Amino acid sequence: MNIRLNIRSCPLCASTLYRLRDHVKEWLVVQCRDCGLVYVGNLPDREPTYEDYCTDSMNLTAPYTENSPDPAFRELFHINKQRVKLVQSMSPDGHLFDVGCGIGYFLVSARDLAGFQVGGIDVSDASTRFARLQLGLQVERSEITDYATTSDRWDIVTLWHVLEHFPDPVSRMRNVWDLLYPGESVLWRYPICSA
Fold this sequence. Notes:
alpha/beta, five-stranded parallel beta sheet, three-stranded antiparallel beta sheet, 2 domains, 30% helix, Rossmann fold, N-terminal domain of TfIIb, 6 helices
């Protein structure tokens, strides 16, 4: 394995001090020593890396249900059920948009468990194709910088473990705010580890 050791500065606070937390394939996951953000330290080239990000580690033939025979799907269903409850506490219904939707299982949960009208984007063509063709979701392969220029507006936007992948999360969050109706909400989660 050939790992590039040129670690970028923290995309949140610009610190160059970090601690190695993990590695996934050729990517190094680091934690900023100043603000605590956990992020991909050596950003990969987009196309070859993110194309299989969601699809290469899951058995996509197993059912996505609370009682799935696949333990990974049971866990993911539980996590997404909790995320839907969190979203409902902010906005009990309406139009929900997920940035970095992957293969779309969170959107399925929001639609089926809570009745949200859903949409999303992801940078992976394979993931969005699966979400459209297999799950019947309205998702697109797009970068947030491109999608934010559309006229689409949403009641709530979610980003689950996406910010740490952006080269400039502050400017990307400005793009996210552009997707919202005035006064509506954004929910995000990103990894922070205790020191």
